[in-house]
Design a protein that fits this description.
By secondary structure, this protein is mainly alpha-helical. The chain has 20 helices and no strands. Helices cover 75% and strands 0% of the residues.
């Protein structure tokens, strides 16, 4: 008989490690923007550097997912940590904008490696009826990192007396140390207790599901688009709020508090996600959250004072907290069991495509129409996502996995048996 304690342990350790790595990235992203500004970058250049962060991951996601489908997930975690720490440290020493862009790309590749490995572990070790909850708890790690990172960056970065270049470098070195510290939690995360079913690679080593087949599976493409829109909103907020603050006279410390306020609201959302799903159902919850995020994101474009900006960001953070974990569950339950890591990697590829295109587009818009324009663009993107999310209500309401949970058991044999002994995740 399997004990439930290991299940609590692996998820708790994964959340802790993810908190540190995401905290490092969330600290480094605004610090990179401030360092770029100190080196003479304008709003357009900041957008390009933010886009390069996602460029290398755009090409690496699917190969990493293929490798994870046919092997262990855990080795990607320390590799990701090492790349994040390296990218942060060398961004702090870079003396030119091209060098900063290159090391930002290394940082993004490390973050992708860690996230693919971590999400695949959650998918593999969670039963279908546990995935909403487990992915929700897993993404709390990201929200905690996004809560701590910007505050730390805001406290370390100073614009007084021309000190921004030096203090932003200090923030980047601190981010590298924070990422390295996550290794203290990377032990016994991926478990395969005796007697569990074989992995997909052992069950059908010759079967390789095509990317086209995964993308045309009902639910995968819509989950990817919603995830792309939500992450693009989070990413542009992180990269462009320092620019907005600079233009509106808001100090880096206050900008850090505002970004962390958004992340705190996201944590609150994910803690309340299970009762919200019971009350509204997954489809309605995703549609309402995307619609609310669209309106709030467009509201940031208005020239409001800092306290009103804080209110808008708190509401936006709560709305944005829904899309990521529920899109993970949607993609995992829709994809074939032997290609779940590849499906998650394709979802991350879509995310990174958004992280390349959205900041670059935001940079162009900011250069042409001011820094308010990117937030109007994000509002439109999230409005489209709300329309995509509500489509199952018009088509097949019974097929909503959040409402009916019809996940086919024959495609979940290895994930179900492995996770029945996982117990309940930490709350």
């Amino acid at each position: 008989m399997k004990s439930s304690e290991p299940g609590r342990g692996w998820l708790l350790r994964l959340v802790i490690a993810f908190s540190f790595t995401q905290g490092a990235v969330s600290m480094a992203r605004p610090a990179v923007s401030y360092r770029a500004l100190a080196l003479g970058a304008d709003a357009r250049a900041v957008g390009v550097i933010a886009g390069i962060y996602a460029l290398l991951p755009l090409f690496a996601a699917v190969p990493l997912g293929r490798r994870t489908d046919h092997g262990r997930c855990a080795p990607l975690l320390p590799i990701g940590v090492a790349l994040i720490a390296t990218g942060c440290a060398f961004s702090g020493t870079a003396g030119s904008l091209p060098a900063m862009a290159a090391w930002s790309g290394v940082m993004g590749l490390g973050h992708l490696s860690f996230v693919i490995g971590a999400q695949s572990i959650v998918a593999r070790q969670s039963a279908p009826d546990e995935q909403d909850r487990n992915f929700g708890h897993f993404t709390i790690g990201a929200s905690l990192g996004q809560l701590i990172g910007p505050i730390a960056a805001g406290l370390l970065v100073s614009e007084h007396d021309g000190a921004m270049a030096r203090t932003s470098a200090v923030a980047l070195f601190a981010a590298a140390a924070l990422a390295a510290f996550s290794c203290t939690s990377l032990w016994r995360i991926e478990r395969r207790p005796a007697g569990t079913a074989a992995t997909p690679a052992e069950e059908a080593p010759a079967r390789k599901v095509s990317v086209r087949s995964i993308l045309t599976t009902r639910g995968v493409a819509s989950g990817m688009f919603i995830s792309l829109a939500v992450l693009s909103a989070t990413d542009i907020l992180t990269a462009y709020l320092p620019v907005v603050g600079e233009q509106r006279g808001i100090s880096p410390a206050v900008v850090g508090v505002l970004l962390s306020l958004r992340a705190a609201a996201t944590v609150a959302c994910r803690l309340a996600m299970t009762p919200m799903i019971r009350l509204m159902g997954r489809t309605v919850l995703m549609a309402v959250s995307c619609l609310g995020a669209a309106l709030l994101c467009a509201g940031i474009a208005l020239p409001v004072p800092a306290w009103a900006l804080g209110v808008l960001l708190a509401g936006l953070g709560f709305c944005l907290g829904v899309g990521q974990p529920l899109s993970m569950t949607t993609v995992v339950q829709a994809a074939p069991a032997e290609a779940r890591s590849t499906a998650l990697a394709l979802r991350l590829t879509g995310n990174r495509l958004g992280q390349v295109a959205a900041p670059a587009s935001a940079g162009v818009l900011a250069g042409l129409a001011g820094t308010a324009a990117p937030f109007v663009m994000l509002g439109g993107l999230l409005l489209i996502s709300a329309g995509i999310a509500v489509r199952p209500l018009r088509g097949r309401p019974a097929a909503d996995p959040g409402e009916a949970r019809p996940a086919p058991r024959e495609r979940r044999t290895e994930g179900t048996s492995a996770s029945r002994g996982a117990g309940h995740p930490p709350r």
